[in-house]
From TrEMBL:
InterPro entries: PDZ_6 (IPR041489), PDZ_sf (IPR036034), Peptidase_S1_PA (IPR009003). Residues 1-20, 38-52 have a biased composition (Basic and acidic residues). Residues 1-60 are annotated as: Disordered. Pfam families: PDZ_6, Trypsin_2. Gene3D superfamilies: 2.30.42.10, 2.40.10.120. This is PDZ domain-containing protein. It comes from Triticum turgidum subsp. durum. Residues 329-368 form the PDZ domain.
Length: 423
């Protein structure tokens, strides 16, 4: 902060703050142009300040960091409702950390999803990357991630205490994990919205840093298909804050809420793409885990994108050529998969699965999980095979056919063996 320009004989000179603050050294440096007397007084004041006992830090008087963007003009319209929503949801938001062999591994966020009054334990939902020791070298679809389910996990509670957490389950494909933790008092649970967030809807991304300070990012759900490096169930953020914050990693596993404070998703991979897992997927995963202690998913051996999220001119072209404006485009077929053996090729269009029209990849993932839920419970077992009817439009032959696809149910991350890549 530069000194005010002045002359020594100016009457108001002594009343102004004339010191120069050096941020690098964090010391007061007097302006040499002010004369020896003033410099001596300033130096004496500095010595007295250094020798005085350090003042007690009072939270109510603290200059709080990190700041939020609620003060900028673009957010004036949501300042009040957004603040109320954020503060309400923050009561469910926790810090979680992991270590392996005594060495810190990850620090993320998590939130309450269940409470067992008899056992006095709470269930925390967070990201599976909490225990991830190795990321995928190239893409999540090519595999290579490694996890340490034996890692020590800690839940950082809002009262400043920490409790040992127990990893009860993790699902690498959907990138979620459940932790049990003992708590003395009953806990209130957040409300997860059954209907998915609408594209372009205003949301807040919430996380807690390593001091439990609340991190708030304003964003909108973005019109995008998941890219090559992301799973089908992810929705993206479009945020004026960007995604280059060094502390974004803390938000992993945190809440995504609407302006009413309802949970619409869980933060996933904010460092690279700024994405989140929508609440419909979370509810489906939680329901499967409660019923089976396992979250199964049929591996179709294909990667898709939604027609409705393509450029409008592209959709118009497909409509003119094939009279189709809804469904999924097959972007990749796993080499040697049943899908390949059934004649499904890259560029083909999936119009329906089990007789249900499919418009988005999130809708697809919810349908796949529902296939694994059966009264006999036998469809949810590991390595169980299920038969799925697929309504297919073959673009090269310009014809429709129904394919009976056999898929293996698994709770591992699906790997697509690379064939010829689609540009």
């Amino acid at each position: 902060m530069a000194a005010y320009p002045t002359r020594r004989d100016e009457p108001l000179a002594e009343k102004r703050k004339l010191d120069v603050w050096s941020e690098e050294e964090e010391v007061w440096s007097p302006d040499p142009s002010l004369g020896h007397d003033y410099s001596a007084k300033t130096e004496q004041a500095r010595r007295e300040e250094e020798s005085a006992p350090r003042p007690v830090k009072i939270p109510t008087l603290d200059h709080f960091k990190p700041p939020t963007r609620f003060h900028i003009a673009e957010l004036f319209s949501v300042r009040e409702s957004g603040s109320q929503a954020v503060l309400s949801a923050a009561k469910f938001l926790l810090g979680v950390s992991s270590s392996l062999d005594g060495e810190p591994l990850r620090r993320c966020s998590g939130f309450w999803v269940d409470w067992d009054a008899e056992k006095k334990t709470g269930l925390v939902l967070t990201t599976a990357r909490l225990i991830r020791t190795k990321d995928a070298p190239y893409s999540v679809w090519t595999g290579g991630q490694e996890y340490a389910p034996n890692a020590d996990v800690t839940v950082h509670l809002l009262n400043g205490t920490s409790a040992k957490g127990e990893l009860v389950y993790y699902q690498p494909h959907y990138d979620i994990a459940f932790l049990n933790v003992e708590v003395d008092q009953p806990i209130k649970l957040p409300s997860l919205r059954e209907k998915d967030v609408e594209f372009a809807q205003e949301v807040f991304q919430l996380g807690r840093d390593n001091s439990l300070n609340l991190r708030i990012t304003y964003a909108r759900a973005e019109y995008l298909n998941p890219n090559l490096f992301e799973r089908h169930h992810n929705v993206y953020f479009c945020s004026p804050d960007g995604h280059d914050d060094d502390n974004n990693e803390y938000d992993n596993g945190g809440l995504v809420i609407d302006l009413n404070g309802k949970v619409v998703g869980m933060v996933n991979d904010p460092e690279r793409f700024g994405s989140f897992i929508p609440s419909s997927i979370l509810l489906n995963c939680f329901d499967s885990w409660k019923k089976y202690r396992y979250i199964g998913r049929p591996h179709l051996g294909m990667r898709f994108e939604a027609i409705k999220l393509l450029e409008p001119a592209h959709v118009d072209m497909l409509c003119r050529m094939y009279n189709i404006d809804d469904g999924l485009v097959v972007r990749e077929v796993s080499k040697g998969s049943n899908a390949e053996k059934c004649g499904i090729q890259k560029g083909d269009l999936i119009e329906c699965i089990k007789g249900k029209c499919i418009s988005t990849t999130v809708q697809l993932e919810n349908l796949l999980m529902s296939i694994c839920k059966h009264p006999s419970d036998n469809k949810n077992g590991r390595n169980t095979e299920v038969h799925i009817s697929v309504g297919l439009f073959q673009t090269l032959k310009k014809c429709r056919r129904t394919v009976e696809l056999t898929a293996t149910v698994s709770d591992l991350g699906e790997v697509i063996a690379r064939g010829t890549r689609v540009s």
